[in-house]
Amino acid sequence: MEDQEMQLKVKRVTDKFTESMYVLANEPSVALYRLQEHVRRSLPELVQHKTDMQSWEEQSQGAIYTVEYACSAVKSMANSSFYFKSIEGLLHQAITLKDHISAAQGRSCRSDVTPSPSPLASPPKSPSSS
Hints:
mainly alpha, rod-shaped
């Protein structure tokens, strides 16, 4: 009887040991199978998110470049006040010179209007020619 009891106990131990080995051997493969399922389901969505993020990054880089360019243009405009003042001074000088030229031309036109001697009259003699 002891023999049968011993065999029963050994069988139980070996069955438990076999079951444990089976679970240990298959558990990682089940876990990997579940991971594979999850990756297959979620990968297309992740790829779409990555594509969207790359597109947004390109757009934001373009916007950043545009803003930096606009800022540099505004800064250079602020620095150009010296040149505008110089241009303003030159314009005032040009206007003044034009007024002087116009006035001089007006005087010369008035002096041209004075009657000239008739071509029939003899030209006046200079004192040195006598």
